[in-house]
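2 proteins. here.
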Amino acid sequence: MIMKQDYGMTHVVHIRNHSIYLDDECVFSDESGSDDFLINAYKQSGANYPKFYKMDTLSKYGFIAAEWLMKGKKSDELSSFRKGIILQNHSSSLDTDRKYQESIADIASPALFVYTLPNIVMGEIAIRHLLKGENTFFVADRFNAKELSSYLQILTSEEILSQVITGYIELNARNPDIFFCLIEKDGDIPFDAESLQELYTKHPLVEVVV
């Protein structure tokens, strides 16, 4: 069923290959390892949010992607209950699960345990940007544009949400795959499955040889 397209994407962020792209412009690049990359990217974003340093790796990448996506947006422009977040990945919170499992050999880490669910990254982003509306995290075999598009069409066509952060956030120790979009009223980029898939494939991951 084709629904009236009142909403569209206004901004797109990719974090891949040690670089951050905002609407196809490279806004940050750093060949450092994952931890240094995240700290340097956080500083480059201009955010002042000390809790960032306590987050797990998945949440840090999500935080940074959302920070660039939401630049210039005023938190009071819309009701917090009309703003939401819909994300997807393949490995859930496996990166943090492994780190927590390793900590059990000594003393189990409560700081890691609280991040052993994939939806915690959404919570961190929601707190930062005052998103109190619908939030859902899908786990799929790979990026599934059709699943995201279908769900987003329902949320926007029924006026459940007026602003949505959506995308894919998969952690690979060598080269994370982060793709975030901001959907708003009067956005000029369609968010049908074909458009989402085409945008996702931009700035493709470069295979890391070890």
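next one coming up
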Amino acid sequence: MKTIRVLLAFLLLFMMLPACGSADAENPASDFEYEENEDGTITITSYIGTDPDVVIPSAIQSKSVTKIGVNAFRKNSATSVIMPNTIIEIAADAFYQCDRLQAITLSTNLVQIGSSAFQECARLKSITIPSQVRAIGDQAFDSSGLETIAFEDGIEIIGGYGAFACTQIKQLVFPSTLKEIGDSAFAACPNLESVALNEGLVTIGHKAFVNNPKLKEIIIPKTVETVTEMDFNMCSGLKKIMFEGDAPTTFEFSDSVSGVWEPYDVHFTVYYHEGAEGFTSPEWYGYPTVCIP
């Protein structure tokens, strides 16, 4: 009797295996329109299948799939997409206004995300940006439903004007490798409460964090050399900016009148360590200052 029970258990497990494997089975080539690139690889130009859960094949006709083309999934009704690790580029508008898209797994070898690639994907709540990504296009995730963003170690630049603007993110933690945050990258994120800038960061682009009313405090690492006059403008809840090192040496988009931040928007206090160079007291560019012994 015991032997029969064991055999039945193994039989049941064997019967379940195909069903488990089918969840991540690649969609057939017939679900896509595609073209061959000059280097012999494949670009997906359109998804014409009906399956809402899409697994992009790693190869078509024995040729590696390396790119998701312009408008390939634009306004498509897919709810999930898994990319093979052969993909190195997502072109402009590739997933623009895919308002049913809830989950996407990016290629670990992805290098480039095009402009507006995921703009207005309202149901997309989370994303992991792989370490190999070197370029994020303008408004790549603008006005999407993103609540969480994970940046893997290795990323050096979060570029692209408004790359993550108008999203629903609540907190940001940047990898130690990051050197530059682009213009308006995280502008107008109404729920953003916490930003952890990394040691090693050099440049905070113009209006990078403008109009984030729930942001209350931010610490500027000593490695930062460039800030702009409107980086934290319209952050009405911001009360404290703490500089860990000397005053930044480069003030982009600034002049002798406006200085680092717009003087009419005085709502926070600048804190700096005793011995730090470049700060003035009791005000610095129109902002009250506190020197910490």
